Amino acid sequence: MATAAASRRHVVAVPYPGRGHINPMLVVCRQLAAADAGLAVTVVVTEEWHALLAAAGVPATLPDRVRLATIPNVIPSEHGRGADWVGFIEAVHAKMGEPVERLLDRLERRPDAVVVDTYLTWGVAAGVARGIPVCSLWTMPATFFLALYHLDRWPPADGPEGEEGQSCKSLDQYIPFPVLSSVKCSDIKIFRSLALELPMKRVAQVFSNLRKAQCVLFVSFYELESGAINGISQVLPCPVYTVGPSIPLMSLEGNSDKIQREKYSDWLDAQPKNSVLYISFGSYVSMPSSQLEEFAMGLHDSAVRFFWVARDKAVTTTLQQISGDKGLVVPWCDQLKVLSHPSVGGFLSHCGWNSTLEAVFTGVPILASPVAWDQLVNARLVADEWKIGINLWEQRREDGIVSRARISAAVTKLMDLGDVDSLEMRRRAEELRKASHSAIQEGGSSWRSLNSFARDVVEGKLNVAENSQ
């Protein structure tokens, strides 16, 4: 039970303005409010994001100790930001910091700590300048963090071996951490492509500023990425806390269409156990229409039952026509509930970190089709490190498209309950499911880590002076 003194401790949380960042930040804030130390938390979002959260009913579900505060809409709208990803990143970098700092200065209760998304380039400096301990929240895999932290050691973009020679090389040949053996130099070449030049510049700035933070929180859990967590603990000059898996209790997208929810629930209930492939490619990064068509035709050829979330109405209609009575296509669903359904036996995913963690949490093997950024590393972890799925990235043609034949073969293999490899993936997925649940239960690794962090905030152990020089 929280003491009166502890309840007065105040944390301000500033997530990066995107679904994949706000969701895990809200989960962490709920955890902090429920910790033994009982922290009060103020979450800072834009006015647009406040409206999106309100429409989904999120504010009403937040604990009494967690409240929302807003800054003006100084960045491009969430709707359509994918059309100019680089422009959105620059707007967040150049325009969002000042209104957040003004809010910090006018708060009635001075924060005892600020939890800020790692990708907010100005976040650490804003807290340190005010003498407030800054806790950086990393919402992607710890393995990806370790790779980016050593950006200066990455191989040259045009090495002597060329792209073909580098495609099979692993990053651990340049950065001496065995866990990076799953990350290929061909992935690094993509990160360094012309389209990502500016984002990579901001990443370098982020990790330079990070060295002044008082601690780093990870939404992963120790048993999932022990090698990366140990490596990070060796190189960071501040404490590291693992608090995941940060599984959202409520989707940010919401949906008032009760008939639609009942329709897909009834359909899932009618399917045999482990027979349905759940398909979702996320809410942000788009996939070429030619690749979507290959997926649709590959699924048709596999004859596997599938449940596909497609947000575009035109795409939904086309997919439903192709799928016939073997599949169901919907514009929205509660992903965690669907993955937890007994009929779902596989997940075809873009491998965003939130989706990856939800698959781990529910013990569902993954057919990975990454598109960009950390998704490439996540897919490597799924197939090569954890061995709970198949990575389609290596099966692309020269034009970057995975053919319907390869998709059909991969889907068939993943969903074949008599296949030796599929059975082994399911066994390992079940082991990780149990480990993820144990981590957040009382006494688990993440439970202990989160409570340790909360106590450190209450007891004033995160000293700004130590790491701000």
Topology of this protein?
Blueprint: H1 4-7, E1 10-14, H2 19-34, E2 40-46, H3 47-55, H4 58-61, E3 66-71, H5 85-95, H6 97-106, E4 113-117, H7 123-128, E5 134-138, H8 142-149, H9 162-166, H10 185-191, H11 197-210, E6 215-218, H12 226-235, E7 240-242, H13 258-269, E8 276-280, H14 289-302, E9 305-309, H15 313-323, E10 327-330, H16 335-340, E11 344-349, H17 353-362, E12 366-368, H18 374-385, E13 389-391, H19 404-415, H20 420-440, H21 445-458, H22 464-467
Parallel strand pairs: 1-2, 1-4, 2-3, 4-5, 5-6, 6-7, 8-9, 8-11, 9-10, 11-12, 12-13
GO molecular function: glycosyltransferase activity
Keywords: Glycosyltransferase, Transferase
Enzyme class: transferase
* Main beta-sheet strand count, sense and barrel state: 7 strands, parallel
Alpha carbon gyration radius: 22 Å
Number of helices: 22
Strand content: 5-15%
Q: Give helix % range.
A: 40-55%
- How would you write the strand order of the largest sheet? 3-2-1-4-5-6-7
For the termini, the CA-CA separation is 37 Å
Unreliable residue stretches = 1-6, 161-166, 250-259
Helix vs. strand class: alpha/beta
Mean pLDDT: 86
Shape: globular
Q: Give the beta-strand count.
A: 13
EC number: 2.4.1.-
Organism: Urochloa decumbens
Keywords: Glycosyltransferase, Transferase
Protein name: Glycosyltransferase
